Amino acid sequence: MNFDTQPPKDDTAKVIVPELAGRRRFILACFMLVMCALIWRAVDLQVLNNAFLQKRGKAVYLRDIKLPAYRGKITDAEGHALAISAPVSSVWINPRQLDLAGKKAEFAKLLGMSLKSLNNKLDKVGSRRFVYLRRHMDPQVAEKIDEMQLSGVYLQKEYRRYYPDGEVAAHLVGFTNIDDEGQEGLELAFNEQLKGVAGVERILRDGKRRMVKHVDDIRAPIPGKDMQLSIDRRLQYLAYRELKSAVAQQQAKSGSLVILNPKTGEVLAVANQPAFNPNDRSKLKASHVRNRAFIDVFEPGSTMKPFTVAAGMESGLFNDKSIIDTNPGRMKVGRSQIRDHRNYGKIDLATLLLKSSNVASSKIALAVEPKSFWSLLHKLGFGQVTANGFPGEARGKLVAYESWRPIERATLAYGYGMSTSVLQLAHAYSALANDGLLQPVSLIRGPQTAAPAERVMNAEVAKKIRTMLKGVVSKAGTAPRAQVAGYTVAGKTGTVKKFAKGGYSEDKYLGVFAGMVPANKPELVMVVLIDEPQAGDYYGGLVAAPVFSRIMTAAMRLMNVVPDNIAAPAVMASFARDVK
């Protein structure tokens, strides 16, 4: 009997099906191939050919950023800053990366915005990658934003233009826009010279797009060139202050003036009213930005009579002793009538200017050859720009002499039928002040490459006309209020009816005074224009001449010009009071 109770062994447990063994070997082989391929690819990318990964990494973490160039300074003749640039920061965002992480209210406050305004702005950004939130911030405030380490919020270094004298020289200097590009005045005219060339810097950023370190300077920024103007800041302030006061006192529509150095042609002061503050343009009006002294034109009226007299003397038909019969105080030219304020009878050329006779001026113009008269006016700069570089400078109007009719020749003699700017008129008067030599107009300090001085009239003629113009400023003349204590003054008034629809207006006038000091050897030439005075007076000798007097009185003292009219005790007493 067999007492063995163990069950028989199952030999099928050790049997491996051939199909399954093949699959296992195939899968293992596949895994080995994949591993080999991965190892080979890793070696290839990391060792043998790593340029691709490096390029991709640089694309993600390296950035070339623009470095703004410092805009050149604009200074006056003595080096005082009229326009400078200060470093500021601008805040921009990438909306796709933006995460304010519960700091939105604090962020809005630092931006100077309400939370509602910030939300409204963020709602409008759409799918853009670059949006400015605030331009030209105080760098200290921008630093606080940077310390918040907000994802998608970035700072950008920029420069903001600042004008230390505000509106005093605004019309000449002009201003830049928020991108530091010149928009008006000399900022626009010399924009390429002033703005410089931006640089490029390469930086490394982290995963939150923050700058980690500086990598390389690809191109250093090239600062803009500084510009030194011919403007004298002291005279500029005087001109601005007195013109503003006069326009307000006369309740005038506007006013302009220009001061020139007749020996060099340099513009020493330019003022206009109304003015504007280039540092705050939130309420800027286009009419206030215009440099009226350079851009606006007007009919110069009786301020043209010295040039009519000069044309007569240059022709040889008249001299300083010539007598002109103005009886009976009027004359007919074609169908038109030319009148004086009253009948001056027989007068010499000095009296013509003293009394501002239209009849005598017209007789000279009708006697002189049209070509000779036109040639003198053209050489004096009328009907053409002064080429000083200011954008939009007016050319004015001087009709070709071939088309002049007798009435046009007559009215041109006392400043109607042509147009000029305040700058052009001052430039023409500088020829009288400089003994017949006309220097090119310059807004830039120092020697220029412009055309040399041109002789436009005989020196003796210019001197004799200056002597005649002294009488205009005497008590017997039309501009005693233009006197400057201690100095001789030569000048001429103009009271011009403004052209309106249908003809000349009977209640809108321009008051003009053009003059020079000291008359014997002029250092300064000035033209003052008051447009539509409404306070009662409108004659040039009453509204413009006093502005000339106040500015020149202070200017002579500032420039240490030796007095040349010390004979009259009363005059010297007045001068002594001014000095005190």
Could you characterize what this model shows?
With 580 residues, this protein is of the alpha+beta class. The chain folds into two domains: 64-228, Penicillin-binding protein 2a (Domain 2) (Alpha-Beta Complex); 233-276 and 290-579, 3-Layer(aba) Sandwich (Beta-lactamase), CATH 3.40.710. 35% of the residues lie in helices and 22% in strands. It is built from 21 helices and 21 strands. A hairpin with a 5-residue loop joins strand 6 (175-176) and strand 7. Helix 14 (358-367) crosses helix 16. Mean pLDDT is 88; it is low at 575-580.
Mean pLDDT, to the nearest integer, reads 88
Spans where pLDDT lies below 50 across 5 or more residues: 575-580
Q: What's the overall geometry? A: elongated
Strand fraction band? 15-25%
CATH-defined superfamily of the largest domain = DD-peptidase/beta-lactamase superfamily
Number of helices: 21
Overall structural class, as computed from helix and strand content, comes to: alpha+beta
CATH topology of the largest domain: Beta-lactamase
Q: Which labels suit this protein?
A:
about 575 residues, alpha+beta, Penicillin-binding protein 2a (Domain 2), Beta-lactamase, 2 domains, five-stranded mixed sheet, 21 strands, elongated, disordered C terminus
